Amino acid sequence: MTRVQRLRGSVQDYAWGKPSSSNPLVKRIYDSQCEASSLPPSNLEKYAEIWLGTHPNGPSTLIDSNTTLKSYLTPSNDLPYLLKILSISKVLSIQSHPDSALAAQLHASNPSVYKTPCHKPEMAIALTPFSAMLGFRTLSSLYSNLQLYPEIKDIVGSKSWKDLRECYENTAGMDFDTRTIVSVSNFFTNYMSNYDKDSLGSSVCSKIISRINSKIDKTSLDDLLLKFHSQFPEDCGVLSPIFLNVLNLKPGESLYVPPNTPHAYISGEIIECMARSDNVIRCGLTGKFKDVEVLCGSLDYEGFEPRRERGVEGEGERIYRPAVQDFEVRTSTLTSDHTFPSVPSPVIFLCLEGSCKVVWDGGEVGVKFGESLFIEEGTVIEVKVEEEVGFVRAMRNVGGG
Ligand SMILES: [Zn+2]
């Protein structure tokens, strides 16, 4: 067996993906991998995700032996991570992923919804301008937004509304103390539980939307509410940017999604890496089942300003390393040849630009845009640049963090 093998991923055509007519990145990558496998190009209407890894819903194939990567690996050396590229044209559902303890508990009590007993940390790195929502806003940001959309009081009730105002006044909007966390938790739980009662939420939402429509100077938050309303008119998630942080990332910037943190990707093309797990608690902007009780009981309500991480510069690479063991991601753009030392993890390599030759002790393989490789743990590779080459490598977190 050779230490480096060519890989073909699986494509997903979810409704939020980019249309084929826009020639999205996911389509271009997947078609390049089809071509490397002597298969015809794909013919889907939407291209949402390409998956590289051993997830059963989208297994990758070793091109030269035409076997799945999963069957090649033993259970003890299976990949703990899944590498994806996403092409997003429509907002994804708002969701959170349980921490390990909650995931185990949910899986035990409801295995048909919570399919694995594992946590699902995830990281996104922007390849184009990328927008996302992540975590609850700070108290001052939340409070000032509520002043702009006071109709929400009719959904949450006057007690909740008053509680939150008192927290703001008592702490001058600065401090996320225990009382504030309880108050935001009650506020959000009332919002989620009352929204669908007798269409209360959607009628309040309609009022807000028509008021925004009549404004001459709309804010970026107004525009986002209009956009969500056009995509999911009846959904409780339309008003979510009022509560949740909205981030705009530039190419190369990344965000990490901690457990129990509500988030949704809004638009752009990204690299995503995650632990190989399926546990999603849905919160809004979806037609799928919403487990409101589990959701509201599990979220981290402490507001924060999310950090846009740019990774750490290494030798010929930029390292994006989260605070979990399951994975890290490294990106490289090379104009001259470079040797990468071995790492104590199997690696998935994906070329995102240009072309190169990957050389190891025992062989070499040409790689161009869109093509992917599986590299055995402990393999030194030399990348010989043919034209300026950009690529991403996913691996287990080898930094001990
Ligand atoms: Zn997620």
Got a strand count? 23
Q: Beta fraction of the residues? A: 25-35%
On the 0 to 100 scale, the average pLDDT is 93
- How far apart the termini lie comes to 32 Å
Which descriptor suits the 3D outline?
A: elongated
Rounded radius of gyration (Å): 23 Å
Low-confidence stretches: none
Structural class by helix and strand composition: alpha+beta
Question: Can you give the helix content as a percent range?
Answer: 25-40%
Largest sheet: 11 strands, antiparallel
Tally the helices: 10
- Which molecules are bound in this entry? zinc ion
Describe this structure in words.
Keywords: Isomerase, Metal-binding, Zinc. It is an enzyme of class 5 (isomerase). GO terms for molecular function: mannose-6-phosphate isomerase activity; zinc ion binding. Residues 182-244 form the Phosphomannose isomerase type I helical insertion domain. The strands form 4 sheets. Strands 1, 6, 7, 16, 17, 18, 19, 20, 21, 22 and 23 form an 11-stranded antiparallel beta sheet that branches. Strands 2, 5, 8, 10, 11, 12, 13 and 14 form an 8-stranded antiparallel beta sheet that branches. Strands 3-4 form a two-stranded antiparallel ribbon. The model has no long low-confidence stretch (mean pLDDT 93). 44% of the residues are buried. The protein has 401 residues and is of the alpha+beta class. The longest helix is centred in the middle third of the chain and has 18 residues, at 178-195. Among the domains are: 139-242, no CATH class; 312-395, Jelly Rolls (Sandwich), CATH 2.60.120. The chain has helices spanning 25-36, 69-72, 100-109, 139-148, 153-156, 158-171, 178-195, 200-214, 220-231, 292-298; strands at 4-8, 10-12, 18-19, 46-47, 49-52, 61-62, 67-68, 81-88, 94-96, 122-126, 130-136, 244-249, 254-257, 263-275, 281-284, 312-314, 317-320, 328-334, 338-340, 347-360, 363-368, 372-375, 381-395. It is 26% helix and 31% strand. The structure holds zinc ion.
